[in-house]
């Protein structure tokens, strides 16, 4: 009995040592704070663990030269806040208008210190529950059938305090520097520690390893003081304006391309970094050679005993010695804190720096573990903006909505409209929605049709990668077909080797809209929800399986898809063909006429005119319709008696009475037809 009581007391003590929360978020960077905001607004039990004393600690150090490459456009000519977020790449989503990034900086490319202040205010003004100075050093699982996901997540911090969570949101970003080991790599300086004072490089010759924005940012800082700069990487330079991927080289950092192509000593080289070797001579100069030259040689004997490439090829490109070699190879995810029971595995190929996750941002190895922010970029790497604030603020909201449905029975937010509003709803969203615009080909609006296509249910910004799971993930049903609204670039318009400035690069006629190159809306129609097998077997580079019908809205120079003939009319006709119905809007006179000449009224007449809904007629409205060619020039006596046109006796009350005289017998007539 004593042993049993002792064991029970140990179990109780062990249980008390775990502090429980429904949701644990690791990391108080932008994605962690964004997730905390949505959880707090929903009234959920959560905590954010941050190893530093303040949020956004990554931005306190990086970028090293302090200029962000995320745009901060102050003016767009529009007052629509949703539209303006298309050109604000730094703000997080919130209800507080004070927390727009333009209030923290007016620079088009802001200083990183402004981001640090912004994140601090975001956490404090919204009173988010962030636990600072808490570094999570170990994460494991505890199996329990009563838990949400049949297991709990057990977290341990640097002080050996333990935490237990039902759902784990990883928002740590990618912060471990990529390092390539080769002979002589000890002589290489890292981007994270190299001097940012240009004077320290005056008169020096520099080799930079890497070809991303951090490499070019470093080169830009010292371009004017060095003898020359060489840059070497395994792949060719990728320009963001050619690839349409914001993570590739941005114009703000590409000064070295000018000095290379205009033959001002600087240059770019391609080569596998793992094949390199660095040898230091007696004067401290660094010589580049190849690894196989060092095999079976005694490097301690000095440089004179080592074969250099120029000994055999006297015009070897990097034969000149360097004063410094700088590593700028980017970052990778920290897998070290996760126990093997979580099966957090790195991706493959170019995605090996990210953990493997599903298109729903849930770990492939562990249910209930979601990866947010930059670390979730494997879903759309080199395709969309999911690795950056202006992209993952929307994917984080999508994850929150998935969790709300899964754990709390709150379906994905939706709005039901009559079918007559279908064209207007699509046009409104493609012209102002920021989530569709930034996360093109990844997040989509879903339109679920009701029975007989009399109404539809509109869901915003759903991850298309899990379209087959829509009913399970959203709590919404799709038995009658659906439309999927995406934004896409042209199929052959993006790539490092593409000429995106060729003469006839834009399409201007609606019949050629399918050949549009620039970002434009694409609408997919499915008579039924695609299956998981169809999603797996979809054509390469297609975000979705082959639809029953597809429509491209013509690209627009102003990204303003409101032209009646070029944009709206082709879209409406496409929708009508899919639904076998008439989606036009009609004046009351036409609805009255149709009732006597057609067996079936158009939806606009059934849902509006027959229910006495719509604008009350007036002489000014009638005259405008006649002048615009929208209706015939009926005389006023046809409907308003013999009153003269300018008489004020035709008051609103009289108009209503006259309208009712037409509608009531008509309703009896239609009811009789139905019977």
Automatic annotation (TrEMBL):
Glycoprotein found in the keyword field: yes
Record GO biological process: ERAD pathway
One GO CC term on file: endoplasmic reticulum lumen
Molecular function GO terms recorded: flavin adenine dinucleotide binding; monooxygenase activity
Keywords: Endoplasmic reticulum, FAD, Flavoprotein, Glycoprotein, Oxidoreductase, Signal
Needed cofactors: FAD
Coiled coil start-end: none
Pfam families, per database record: Pyr_redox_3
Similarity section: Belongs to the FOXRED2 family.
Function description: Probable flavoprotein which may function in endoplasmic reticulum associated degradation (ERAD). May bind non-native proteins in the endoplasmic reticulum and target them to the ubiquitination machinery for subsequent degradation.
SUBUNIT field: Interacts with SEL1L. May interact with OS9 and DNAJC10. Interacts with TXNDC16.
Protein name in UniProt: FAD-dependent oxidoreductase domain-containing protein 2
Organism in which the protein naturally occurs: Nyctibius grandis
Gene: Foxred2
